[in-house]
Hints:
Layout: E1 12-17, H1 23-36, E2 41-45, H2 52-61, H3 69-82, E3 86-94, E4 97-105, E5 118-119, E6 126-129, E7 139-145, H4 146-152, E8 156-160, H5 163-171, H6 177-181, E9 192-197, H7 200-204, H8 217-230, E10 235-239, H9 243-261
Parallel strand pairs: 1-8, 1-9, 2-8, 9-10
Antiparallel strand pairs: 3-4, 3-7, 5-6, 6-7
Helix pairs in contact: 1-9, 2-3, 3-5, 5-8
The structure holds 2'-deoxyguanosine-5'-monophosphate (DGP) and sodium ion (NA) (2 copies).
Amino acid sequence: LSVGNTDSRGALIVLEGLDRCGKTSQSGKLLSHLEGLGHSAELWRFPDRTTSVGQMISAYLLNQSQLDDHTIHLLFSANRWEKSQLYLMIVQRQKTELCIWHWGGCEGYSGAICALGSYGSSLGVIISLGFLEHGHSIVCYHLRSMMETKLKAGTTLIVDRYSYSGVAFSSAKGVDVEWCKAPEMGLLAPDVVLFLDIPPEKAAERGGYGGERYEHLEFQKKVAQCYQILRDSSWKMAAEGIDEVEKELHDIVVDHVLACKKGKPLSLLWS
Ligand code: DGP
Ligand code: NA
Ligand code: NA
């Protein structure tokens, strides 16, 4: 196993802001910048509308379906948990070497897992299986989340919206903040949150505004207030569209990428 021999990892970078704040184009520029410096990086976004949960979210945002505020909140959260789903790596032990034999989703295997021991590994817990279903003398099941797997393989994730959108948009409707935070608990905490600070009035002037459920000026003003409640020391506020600010954001991100490369530990929301 070549990954995980050190605690080096990619950084988890989250971009947040109101609708039409320019996050998506900033995410793209950030990706090119990191790749240009030779870092491995990927762009993710939430909601991920490609999954079956994501399709329900998309229909709701397009006003094609109506859902209770709590229900849609939990669907958005489920859409983030989907990406943290445990994946299963089966490794076969060959003398002193471990080689990856199969990699796939957990379904169908979870019932069979019986923990006989664990390997010390920065990758996580490797569980030896005591039965010989696959005809190997020792089969190790290694449980990892997709997001953690990417990070620990050294890939930096630039994530367009995350749990903060979840709490800000739902609490702007009047749903209790603590209730909103609860289902996000246990997801990975970002290393840095870049908040693109734009006056709601300015965002509202942009083309295509109003196309989806939440794109109304009065609602976005409430979302802006709710974001402020969530703000902590990991947040960097940035006025959008200014070259120096963009450069500053890039420098902040590179600093975090380097710190993670040196082994800065991962933590969980909302600790
Ligand atoms: P986007 O694809 O970034 O334009 O996001 C779609 C819309 O969904 C946008 O108005 C923000 C909102 N949104 C994103 N994440 C969440 C969430 O977790 N909960 C709620 N209620 N809204 C969200
Ligand atoms: Na939008
Ligand atoms: Na999104």
